[in-house]
# Entry
Amino acid sequence: MNIQLLRHATMRMEWNGKCYLLDPMLSPAGTFDATVNTTPTLRNPLVELPVPQEQAAAVDAVLVTHRHPDHWDEAASALLSRKLPILCQSEDVEAFVQEGFAQVHGLAAGESGELHDLRVSRTGGHHGYGAIGHAMGTVSGFVLDDGMQKLYIAGDTVWCEEVGGVLDQYKPDVTVLFAGEARFVGSGAITMGLNDIIQVLRRAPRTKVVIAHMEAWNHCGLTRESLQRDLALEGFAERVFIPADGEMLEL
# Structure
């Protein structure tokens, strides 16, 4: 399994001869206003893609955890072939169909399906705590299983027992966490920070952890450097990969 972080949550995964694109946000840097009620008020995305858009879009299938604009944007919709299989949460199927995609496969909460030779199971989570988490809407993760390796993509969630339950049930070999500790002014975090990641590492002592969703959107304040330093202080550095944009991991 090879995983390449492109930018933010957008990743390319090469697995058993197929290439999968996760949460494609393919717009040039500075396309979008800063997220409302966040700081600093910088335009998004903060950085360019490390590869041409057309290269990012040359894949065999697409997985989308949810349709917030930092995970699915107009550039992705314009660039991706309408014939590509798209796997998403069932709540988002109609929106993809309206955009003209012909092979949209929606999974209900807890449901599993097939994508090429992978068994894909939808998982849950909480995109923040309390009222803000509720306001952020439904988000999902996925467990991908080829019978030899299991990959857990947690999606936009903080640490919660739903995440812990997935780790207990599936025992993934590799876990992708969306970090950055994104937050609105006056609210708690809506994606994972250091303490959330440590909870994952303690709950699943055999999983390798890949960190994404950092340094590309204005309200994600947690940096790679600080996270790497703090994880090393906690003794977890050898199990965690924090790739740079464009970096390929062989796992």
Q: What stands out?
A: The domain at 2-242 is CATH 3.60.15.10 (Metallo-beta-lactamase; Chain A).
